[in-house]
């Protein structure tokens, strides 16, 4: 099966998570990924990863999408080589990666152009939707 791929830059700032969600959902919708529950999960994952890239990362944020039928991977790259790690949630946070883990099949971090890229594979897209490619 041919993969559908997209990659785009996100302007850095307080609006980065919202901008990212809009861009990701627009691309996925154009590809036929429109299921409400599934796209809600995707929105949360994108929000948490982009918020982390802005708050804890450095330099830039680049989003990638790869779709192989029901299997869809979103990636968020930033310019810091520091590797994100789940931590014990407390009053100051620590819930973002817990959410990402709960809403994805798997996630991991890889080196990317001097920084890193967090890749997260969503649960399989439900095949009940006839618009699905
Ligand atoms: N892009 C990143 N670059 C560097 N460190 C990161 C990145 N993302 C996460 N981290 C590290 O991993 C930790 C856990 O991230 P997580 O999103 O779970 O919690 P948080 O961002 O601290 O709080 P919350 O997401 O609940 O507001 C962060 O505290 C940070 O130290
Ligand atoms: Mg976070």
TrEMBL record:
InterPro entries (UniProt xref): Anti-sigma-factor_SerPK, HATPase_C_sf, HATPase_dom
Any Pfam family: HATPase_c_2
UniProt-recorded name of the protein: Anti-sigma regulatory factor (Ser/Thr protein kinase)
Domain Histidine kinase/HSP90-like ATPase: 18-120
Gene3D superfamilies linked: Histidine kinase-like ATPase, C-terminal domain
Gene Ontology MF annotations: protein serine/threonine kinase activity
Annotated coiled-coil segments of the chain: none
Lineage: superkingdom: Bacteria
Record's keyword terms, sorted: Kinase, Serine/threonine-protein kinase, Transferase
Annotated source species: Actinoplanes xinjiangensis
Region entry Disordered, spans: 112-133
